[in-house]
Amino acid sequence: MLSEARAVSLREFWLRGRGQANLMIGLAVTLLLIAVAVLSLVWTPYPINAIDIPAKLQPPSAAHWLGTDQFGRDVLSRIMAGARNSIAVSLVAVGIGAGLGVPLGALAAARRGWVEEVVMRFNDFTFAFPALLSAVMITSLFGPGAINAIIAIGIFNIPVFARLTRGAALSLWQRDFVLAARVAGRGRTRITLDHILPNIASLLIVQMTIQFALAILAEAGLSYLGLGTQPPDPSWGKMLNEAQTLMFLAPQLAIFPGLAIMATVLGLNLLGDGLRDLLDPRLRRLR
Amino acid sequence: MTLLSLQDLSVVLDTPEGPATVLDRVSFDLAAGESLGIVGESGCGKSMTALAVMGLLPDAARCTGRIDFEGRDLLALDEQALCALRGRCIAMVFQEPMTALNPVKSIGYQVAEGLRWHLGLGRGEAAARAVKLLDRVGLPQPRFSPDLYPHQLSGGQRQRVVIAMALACDPALLIADEPTTALDVTSQAEILALIAEVTAASGMALMLITHDLAVVWQNTAAMLVMYAGAVAERGTTAEVFARMAHPYTRGLLAASPGALGDILPAGRRLATIPGQVPDPQDRPTGCVFAARCARAAADCLPRPPAERVLAPGHAVACLHPHEEETVL
Ligand SMILES: Nc1ncnc2c1ncn2[C@@H]1O[C@H](COP(=O)(O)OP(=O)(O)OP(=O)(O)O)[C@@H](O)[C@H]1O
Ligand SMILES: [Mg+2]
What we know:
The complex is a heterodimer of chains A (287) and B (328).
Chain A: H1 2-18, H2 21-42, H3 75-111, H4 113-128, H5 131-142, H6 146-173, H7 176-183, H8 188-224, H9 236-243, H10 252-279, H11 281-284
Chain B: E1 2-15, E2 18-31, E3 35-39, H1 46-54, E4 61-69, E5 72-73, H2 79-85, E6 90-93, H3 107-118, H4 123-136, H5 155-167, E7 173-177, H6 185-201, E8 205-210, H7 213-219, E9 222-227, E10 230-236, H8 237-243, H9 247-255, H10 259-263, E11 308-311, E12 314-316
Parallel strand pairs in B: 3-8, 3-9, 6-7, 7-8
Antiparallel strand pairs in B: 1-2, 1-4, 4-5, 9-10, 10-12, 11-12
Helix pairs in contact in B: 3-4, 3-5, 4-5, 5-6
Bound molecules: adenosine-5'-triphosphate and magnesium ion.
């Protein structure tokens, strides 16, 4: 019965969302990115790490659509594999951020008092360092590498989700239906699970798409600095880094990974904006 | 048998402007299956009384006195014990049906929730009981499917859902805090009739909070008039209405928007009681109503008047109560 109601509203979401240009563009770009990443697992035009020195630094051609790098590796293949890397890193990093931040924020709002103080001070502490700086700190402490980059980006995401959750949850705790749930004898944990989180789910989804874009940027930044993904694994940021010295010799080496990052971040932001409009409860009331 | 007993319940709230006494030595008894109306102006502490009984006062509140429910001191219970009591033994209906329901859960789910939680019913059984409860409060199938969401119902219909939620576990006490204020006149009468009917039918005690004397007159056997956090007058509804000894009670009668206002002789009818309720941070030492009272004298000012019994089952906290009978 309930799933039937869900199905109806999903269809309604689709019908309403179809007319929204930014949502549709964002969705298309995101799906394309995912498709490319999945495809790269089974097929790329060339093996991603196949070195072919005679064919190095070629401009785009029929054989190599996006050209080759200084080792003669196919850029298109590496960008495809880089998408996989970007998705994996940002998925796990946002997962860490939301997975720890949301419970912390919800706990702070539910318990108030010293629990809230501790959580918020922890947030302030983490937030006080600029994201990239704290990532550099963590990776220099534990050594560079994809895993440490993920952890660094994840930690920087925790306070984002903790603050968002706490703020939204605090205002929900003031609402009558939460008081009604308390009057009905529900404990704070159950109220958080049944009443608070479902009501901020859409907010969290939107924030996740945005943090996802930021995480892709952060991964690229860390890899660019040599602190993220290590060679020879492909990463968009790493490719930019390597292209730097060859800027005038082979500009395509910088342009294509740059475009990939830009399109992905733009697409995710459009998706986030579109979802925000779509999930806005004030609009939902009108259905 | 006494179900609920408040003894000298005082509640002090810590506010940025200093401590505010929102309840001042409130005492009353409510027997099982009986009904009590609590009436007073906005801000006189009616909701605070209800929340104190539910154990849901704001964090900044300090409570003294006793609240006994079925022989247990509620103020001594921990949160877990209170959770087991709320919704199971004491249920509450709020003023705002528009916001008292969770917008993202179906009404069937919300009614069934308490059944599953308190009574341990399975999903199917709870859902079946929920449908019966919806029917009981005047939301019959198939028009009012349990799969509807709150925004698909009118205010009156939502309040019926809230009442169904409150009735679900067959509590011993139902607290209704201005259950009809947000509704239009027709729905008001229907909802009040529904509350009176269901509580009477299942032997539930009713604590009905309102600012409208007419609502008390029509629905409860006993009543309590509150002013500025304290009890001004109390008794059986018939006794209190026959005498209306406290000047504040008469002021409320005159200000009553409903049928009662018209009964009063034109010359004694007032639109409102002049003046304002004193701030809870800044209560006068004497009678709190003195500043607004036409009958106030010098002896009202030094200390608050003690409660005096006028007749069996009728008491007033006033040094100069009205002596003459009302026209009612
Ligand atoms: N969270 C709070 N902090 C400080 N003071 C409060 C708080 N909540 C209520 N009060 C004060 O407590 C007093 C009693 O409030 P209460 O809600 O019990 O009034 P009420 O009789 O229910 O009024 P109404 O008819 O408007 O619902 C009021 O003076 C109010 O200003
Ligand atoms: Mg109130």
